[in-house]
Amino acid sequence: MSFIIISGQSGAGKSQAKKVFEDLGFYCVDNLPPSLIPNFLELIEQSNENLSHVALVMDIRGGKFFKDLEKNLVLMDEKKYKYQIFYFEADDDVLLKRFKETRRTHPVDPSARIEDALEKEKKMLNALREQANIVINTSNLNHAELKQEISKHLEMDVSKSPMALTLISFGFKRGIPLDSDFVFDVRFLPNPFYVEALRLYTGNDLQVSDYVMGFEESQLFFNHIVTLLDFAFSKFQQDGRMQLVVSVGCTGGQHRSVTFINRLADYYQQKGHPVQKVHREIKGASND
Prior knowledge:
Elements: E1 2-8, H1 14-23, E2 27-30, H2 37-46, E3 53-57, H3 69-78, E4 84-89, H4 92-102, H5 114-131, E5 134-137, H6 143-153, E6 164-171, E7 182-185, H7 206-212, H8 216-238, E8 243-250, H9 256-270, E9 275-279
Parallel strand pairs: 1-3, 1-4, 2-3, 4-5, 6-8, 6-9, 7-8
C-alpha cells in the first residue's frame, strides 16, 4: 500500500495538494488525529475496498492531538508500516499575503499577529520537516505545476495517463449541459427527423447513423472535431487535467448528436481513453 502523510505550514497549499492526491487515485482523509493512525491502517488492511493508495492530511489544526504525531510515527516504524511524509511550505511573504487575501486568522494563535504565528508554527514543525521525505515549496507553483511536482516524486507521469472523457448528446431546445468543456452544434447537417422511415429511430440505430454519416459534410465535420479535440486533450493533460466533458447537440437530441457521440466514443475508446457516454434526451438509453 502506498501511504502518504501530507503536512506542512498553514497556507502552504495542503488543501490543493489533497485534491491532487485525490485526482491521482488516493483515498484521502483530512485532519485525522495522529493517535488514530494505527487503527486506521488496520481498518484499511481489513477492508474489502482494496485501497492501495492512501493519504492523510495532518497539521497544526489538530491542536494538542497533533503532538501525538511523532510518537505514532515511531509506532508505525516499529510495526514496519512503510510511509512517506510530504511537507509543504512557502516563503514567509507569500504565506502572509495568502492570509491577508483570505482574511483568515492563523490556527496556531488566532489572536496573534500573523507574522508571529507563522514564526511560532515554523518552530513547532521543524522536527517534522527534518523527518519529511519530500519538501515542496509552493510559493511559485500554480495548480498544474503542483500536480506535476507531486507526480514526479510519486514517479507517476500524469501527462501519459489517458484523460477520462464524458461524451454527451443533447437537444438544444432543452439547453446545453452546464458541465460541458466543449460544445459542438450539428444542427446544420441533414436531419433524419424529416425522413419518414427514420423519424422514430435514433442515432443508436444503424440506419440513422449511416444516414447521418453518409454526407460529406458530416465526415468533414467529424474529422475537424477530432483534430481539434486531439490537440486540446494533449495540452489539457500537460496542464494536469484528468477529465473533460464534450457535448454534441442537435435540435431534439435524438439523431445527429447521438450519432456523433457514438462515433466519438468509439474513436476515443480505441485510443485508450476511459469514456462515459450519455444520451441525455433518449429515455431508457444504455449509457456507458
